[in-house]
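I can't quite decide. Please look over this sequence plus structure tokens:

:::
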Amino acid sequence: MTYTALDLYSDGLDFLTGIVHGTDAQTWRQDSPCAGWTALDVLGHVCDATSAGTRILAGEQFEFTAHQPPSEAVDGEPAAVWDALAAQARSALDGVDDLDRVVQSPMGPRTVAEGLSFPAADLFLHGWDIAASGGRSVTIPSAAVGFIDAMFDGLPDEAVRRPGVFGPAVTPPEGATPTEALMARCGRDPRLS
């Protein structure tokens, strides 16, 4: 069975939910591997992206605006805010039966698969960031690592190696796990977790 963008998104929602629920109040104020952002900023960024993705799946047209700082997107207790957004995202996913359906996005018309792939990958990558903020090590499932690697293989470097997206790749440590290799590819020092 083929692992799709819908699978990645659904699994990513579960992955991030587990991390959010395992994050204590002190960690939310800690610096994250994303320069200039706390763990709460990372969650706020993911909340903005998840909210936008849900609106795209619902066929809404809108102008995407991100909170500044991103932590302002988290209005309340982090786990409760995330759970509400994740429930809306899951509900929107339940109505998707055609990955090739074209929807409007802030980047113009895209298929559902194209529109979901990057936000789905973010659920895993930023889940790792939040966990690393608290010194926790997490393993991204192999199916997700494979999907995300293939997605990056198909993107030009200039599309992902720029401010606000990803910095230069980091050399992974010898004997790196697939998760560590992926995070190094995404510009994170995998030894932070």
Remarks:
- The chain has one domain: 5-192.
- The chain has a mean pLDDT of 91.
- The longest helix spans residues 112-133.
- The CA atoms of residues 44 and 83 lie 13 Å apart.
